[in-house]
Amino acid sequence: MLKRTISIVRTGGGLSYRSLSSGNHVDTLRMVKALEAINVPSTQAEALTGAFTGGLESVMEKVKADIAKSEEYQSTRVAEEVRKLRADIDKMRADIATLQAEQRCDHHIQLVHKVEQGFNELKDEFEETKYEVLKYAIGTLVAVSAAEAVMIYLMIVDT
């Protein structure tokens, strides 16, 4: 607990005071003596000191209560902000997971498309190759048939 020293001086037609240190304790004996030093009767000095310290204590209690309310408000506000941030983080995590799933799905679709495209290319190539093989087979059959016909002709002519 810090000590608060109050200096009281006579100014013109009245009294004034100023705080010399911070804290919430008033040196009442010193205050009474300071008032008596400027010719304030003891009973009045004690009454003034009592009224002043009572008022000061009342103000200090109100300040403490206001500080406690403010701290409670700030604590509640910080807790609410933390809750909101956690909710935002959870939502971002869910969004990231969704995006990753969509990307995997897109990647899967792209792979399926590439496989289908490759399959179609192979199918087209197979069709082209089939016709080429058919042409060679027909050509070979024609050549073999022609050779047989020539052989048959030669056998008939030789005989």
Automatic annotation (TrEMBL):
GO terms for cellular component: membrane; mitochondrion. Its main location: membrane. Keywords: Coiled coil, Membrane, Mitochondrion, Transmembrane, Transmembrane helix. It is found in: Membrane; Mitochondrion. The chain crosses the membrane at residues 133-156. InterPro entries: CCDC90-like (IPR024461). This is DUF1640 domain-containing protein. It comes from Arabidopsis arenosa.
